[in-house]
């Protein structure tokens, strides 16, 4: 991947508890190019850092059973 490292926020829907937060965080961290991920359960938001493609993050979150949309 020839991208510059960056930081991107995603709105996450479907999380209701700490287990959900952990599942989403693990799914995002396992995505190619991700160097860091922080999920905020109350805000329903994830902040992801690294060299990744947004669609890959959204697909990983969907595979974990939740929905992610890139946000600003």
Structural description of this entry:
It is a single chain. The chain is an alpha+beta fold and 72 residues long. It has one domain (6-71): Alpha-Beta Plaits, CATH 3.30.70.100. It contains two helices and four strands. The chain is globular.
Set out the fold topology.
Layout (H helix, E strand, L loop, with lengths): L5 E8 L4 H12 L4 E7 L4 E6 L3 H10 L3 E5 L1
Antiparallel strand pairs: 1-3, 1-4, 2-3
Which key phrases capture this entry?
single chain; 72 residues; alpha+beta; Alpha-Beta Plaits; 4-stranded antiparallel beta sheet; 2 helices
Per DSSP, the total helix count is 2
Helix content: 25-40%
Instruction: Please list the strands of the largest sheet in the order they lie side by side.
Output: 2-3-1-4
Order of helices and strands: EHEEHE
Quickly describe the structure:
The protein is an alpha+beta fold and 72 residues long.
């Amino acid at each position: 991947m020839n991208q510059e490292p960056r930081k991107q926020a995603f709105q996450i829907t479907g999380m209701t508890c700490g287990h959900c937060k952990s599942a989403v965080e693990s799914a995002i961290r396992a995505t190619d190019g991700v160097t860091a991920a922080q999920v905020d359960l109350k805000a329903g938001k994830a902040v992801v850092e690294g060299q990744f493609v947004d669609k890959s993050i959204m697909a990983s979150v969907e595979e974990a059973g939740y929905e992610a949309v890139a946000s600003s």
